Amino acid sequence: MGVFGSGLQRLCAVVAAATAGLAARQVRRALKQTPTVELRLDWLRSDGERARFLRWLKKNAPRSAVFLATCRRKEGGGKFNGDVAGELFWLMQAREAGCGWCDVEIETLRQLPNRSVRGYAVPPKVLLSVHDFDRTPAFPRRVAMPDPGEADAVKIAAAAHTIGDSLRLLRLARHSKNFVAVPMGEAGLPARVLALREGSALAYAPVAEATAPGQIALEEMKHLYRAHQLTGRTRVYGVIGDPIGHSLSPLLHNTGFVARRIDAVFLPFLVRKLGDFLEAVPELGIRGFSVTLPHKQSIRKHLEGCDSLAEAIGAVNTVVVRRDGSLHGSNTDYVGVLRALEKKIKLAGSRVLVFGAGGAARAAAFALHRAGATVVICARREAAAQALARAAGGEAVPRRALRTEYFDAIVNATPVGMQVGMQVGMHPRAGVSPLAANELNCRVVMDLIYRPQQTQLLKIAARKGIVTVSGVEMFLAQGFAQWEVFTGQRAPEAVMRRAILRALAAKESRS
Known about the structure:
- There is one protein chain.
- This protein is an alpha/beta fold.
- The chain has helices at residues 20-31, 47-60, 84-96, 106-109, 163-175, 189-194, 218-224, 249-260, 274-284, 308-313, 333-342, 359-370, 382-392, 456-463, 471-487, 493-510, and strands at 11-15, 36-40, 66-70, 101-105, 125-132, 153-159, 179-184, 203-206, 235-241, 264-270, 286-291, 305-306, 318-321, 327-330, 351-355, 374-378, 395-396, 407-412, 442-447, 467-469.
- The strands form three sheets. The protein has an eight-stranded parallel beta sheet.
- Helix 1 (20-31) links the parallel strand 1 (11-15) and strand 2 (36-40).
- Helix 11 (333-342) crosses helix 12 (359-370) and helix 11 (333-342) crosses helix 15 (471-487).
- The longest helix is centred in the C-terminal third of the chain and has 18 residues, at 493-510.
């Protein structure tokens, strides 16, 4: 057992609020999830709020809880405007309020006589913290613990720009005793989830507002990712892409794992360079992964094998890591297109327009062709449309033809209309439609975009009395198929669907 205990005790809730009242409410929420709580006293907006909060804590804190007080100065990356003497004063007040641990940054120790806080009446257990907000330094194999008289544990928090950066911190956790590994930034997010499994003494998760880049909310850390329950036997899966923060795949797959009681976790990997991720696959024990933009085509050269449909489409969205470490690819996007459209029309013999010529359009075109539909391609670049039409056994039409031609269904496979911030390199707006009302001459319109659920394109179609299909239907169908590829079990579709629809509704209500 480590210095903070085991299991759930090592999941540390972070309380950070501007007022004593808000901080008190966060403490109550935190203690419903975990007995270990970090108190960011530096986030309280004044000395008066700090004093009020600590008075409340002294009166209300349960003895069974473990409180770790932090009053990080701006010099150490915190919000406290005071000097070292002020920091130590509030840590001493925290001890009076019942805090058994304090976090003291190395910048503070360097300004103290003998570089130690032991001569002050701060909380008896000391976590010595080092922060590097710019990079992940080169590390030795293990961290040499300071003299027991100086600190009881060491924390290193470093900005992880790559997955390789975060792995260096995890290696330290594996080989060091009483060590806390905190990879910061979106690229370090998976390592935050896996940190406890790898030997970190704590994993931090905010109750409310994040206090460091890449943090995962406490509710998600405990219930979605189950970070405190992961072991060396836990199967690791993920989704790779850039950007990746918007992905709902972790929610979809983890919900399925929980429902079926499968010891597995699904993580979002921000991958700018495929090599960075692929080097981490063996070390993290990754068993499979989803592939999204911009890697669906470039991943193919790293595969040992690929199913025939994915080969024909020229894009892979699902990769399984076999026992010998080799990678095998497939594509479930086509399943999503077919299942979503087949609920509305009979595809065999129908005439379907695919608008776009990228990776998503290729999956849709090949799926529709195999289902017996006549496929028509239209894209901004006519040469690309003609190339896809030839490959998928369809025909290409120019944009001007859409005002007079009729289709059984139209599928938008472009990113136009996607929620702001959801794509790199472009700035699509949720209120923009890729097609005008006079170009929608059909019975059914399907948009592969699922954020927002009701895109401007679908709204225009609905006003014309056209049946609409949201991209969330494709996302769910391809995700169910993918989950079954990974697990070999039937997906618990109803519970996975509810989780996604609730999440989308919640996000749209806040926007």
